[in-house]
Amino acid sequence: MNISYRNRFSSYFVMALVAVFVSSGAFGCSSSPKEKEKPKAQATAPAAAKKAEPAAEPQVGPDGPESIPYGGVDEISTDPAMIEKGKGLFESKGCVACHRMDMKLVGPALGGVTERRTVKWMARMIQHPEMMLEKDPVAKQLLATHFTPMANQGVTPDETKAIIAYLATQKPPAK
HSE of 170 in the Cβ direction (CA atoms, 13 Å)? Predict the structure, then answer.
């Protein structure tokens, strides 16, 4: 009785294997030229899409992608009250959690940042960091270097102007 159970199981197992091979042959292999061309076309379509993506990045200038708003912040204020307000915002908005002026912490050192980046680029990064990380090659490089995306703190254009005024007073780190 035990032997017939094994024979029956073996027969079902063999039939299942045959069914798998036959069905994979029927659905996976085709001698039709039209079906052979489709996978080739599908294989080249992603390659063409990949080639098209990098072409968009070189069009981004030093101010960052024009599609990202900068809130009209396009100059550095030298007003002492604005600088003081920027210092307070730098602390209250949580910038100090990730940034120092003279050394890398979680994010890059910000001393001398106004010498490395344009005002519009900084304004875009402060107000819309997630959009910059998607579209701006410099922001992408910073993420690759520091491994942590900058959080959006909901900074308004007026607050951005004050923070940039404060950053402009900070010297680059000593080398």
Answer: 24
Between residues 50 and 8, the one the model is more confident about: 8
Mean pLDDT of the chain: 80
Structure tokens at 51: 């080639």
> Where is 58: in which H helix or E strand?
none
Contact call for residues 105 and 94 (beta carbons, < 8 A): no
Residue 60: predicted pLDDT: 85
Note whether 55 and 140 are within 8 A (CB).
no
Query: What long-range pairs does 140-147 form, CB within 8 A, spacing at least 24?
Result: 142/107, 142/108, 145/108, 146/104, 146/106, 146/107, 146/108
Give 57-102 as a 3 state SS string. Answer: HHHCECCECCCCCCCCCCCCCCCHHHHHHHHHHHHHCCHHHCCCCC
